[in-house]
Design a protein that fits this description.
The protein has 324 residues and is an alpha+beta fold. The chain has helices at residues 3-12, 18-25, 41-50, 66-69, 105-114, 130-140, 144-153, 161-168, 199-213, 217-227, 266-274; strands spanning 31-37, 54-63, 83-86, 96-102, 119-121, 124-126, 230-233, 239-247, 250-258, 277-281, 284-289, 292-298, 310-313. 43% of the residues are buried.
């Protein structure tokens, strides 16, 4: 592990967005937004500027509990980010500050202008215009084909963007087009691809992987494991990965893990942890331990972030954007 990686992990208290930060530091990606605890903001600023990067500071995010959302006008409209806006100077308050980092100061500023989130101010949700999502994606360097797809399918509170990408995939789902573990710190691709064999996304991920190799082979081995695996993607909010084999809509596995999310589906996670085979028949997931039935889960599409279960086996070359 390089000194840059070690220092980054110390400052964000974990892995944060490790692969994305390396991509920015190495010039593969133009801009990223990151999240820094108030007490670490000064040291983080010194760290990134010492690497020759420009930075803009956004608002402080004070995370809200579910019970607090019920008292806020528009609270039900918040997705993954459920927070009250504050000033970054209020570093004594529990929460994290959004920052924007990149090599080009003007592009970082453009990202900061468009990169804000729906937040609570004075007990009301302030909603972000949809066009700002598009301009933010442009500033972050996302491919135009993926931005166009996100404009159609990115509202994952209403649809499953993974299912949409799978439906557009023309060949095999490529490991280099796997965005599923992007919030773990070990995902090469940090945006929803237009499809799971998107050439532009594969080229980007291959460049990120090459950059990461210079910071420790152990990091790449972990990222490779997550990239080349079968996944059950229930919705844009919930998914599961496996060390195992996917055949149709059945996975036989030895290990499973939940995709990082702020609203985990613990019911499915418990079933999968007790089993070693999961299969989808109609709208029911059934889990087995060898020949012993463990339990089932009924798929629901009549709620926020509707479930549209999609099985994807990400394969193909892991070090080249060309299919194996």
């Amino acid at each position: 592990m390089s000194d840059v990686v070690r220092r980054y992990c110390d400052l964000v208290t974990g892995y944060g967005q490790l692969t994305t930060f390396v991509a920015v530091a190495e010039g593969v990606k133009p801009v990223m937004d990151d999240w820094v605890a108030g007490p670490a903001l000064s040291d983080y600023t010194e760290f990134v500027t010492g690497l020759g990067l420009a930075m803009e500071v956004g608002p402080l995010f004070e995370t809200l509990a579910e019970s607090e959302l019920a008292e806020i006008t528009g609270g039900a409209s918040l997705n993954t980010t459920r927070a009250r806006a504050g000033l970054a100077a209020d570093s004594v308050v529990a929460g994290r500050t959004q920052v924007f980092v990149g090599h080009d100061a003007q592009r970082v500023l453009e990202a900061a202008r468009a990169g804000w989130y729906n937040l609570v101010a004075e007990d009301r949700v302030v909603l972000k215009p949809w066009i700002d999502h598009y301009w933010f994606g442009r500033a972050l360097g996302y491919p135009d084909c993926c931005l166009d797809a996100f404009a159609r399918d990115g509202a994952w509170n209403l649809t499953n963007p993974y299912a949409a990408a799978a439906a557009r995939t023309e060949g095999a789902a490529l490991a280099l087009c796997n965005p599923v573990m992007r919030h773990s710190g070990f995902g090469y691709l940090n945006h929803y691809p237009c499809r799971f064999d998107c050439p532009a996304s594969a080229r980007y991920s291959a460049s990120v992987r090459r950059a990461l190799l210079g910071h420790g082979t152990g990091l790449v081995e972990r990222a490779d494991r997550y990239a080349r695996a079968p996944y059950l993607l229930l919705s844009g909010w919930a998914g599961f990965g496996f060390d195992g084999v996917l055949e149709g809509t059945t996975v036989r596995y030895s290990v499973c893990w939940q995709v990082p999310t702020n609203k985990p589906n613990n019911a499915v996670a418990k079933l999968l942890s007790d089993g070693n085979r999961v299969e989808l028949v109609g709208n029911v997931l059934s889990v087995w331990r060898t020949d012993t039935f463990v339990g089932s889960y009924e798929i629901r599409a009549d709620h926020y972030a509707p479930e549209h279960p999609t099985f994807v086996d990400f394969r193909g070359s892991i070090d080249s954007p060309e299919p194996a």
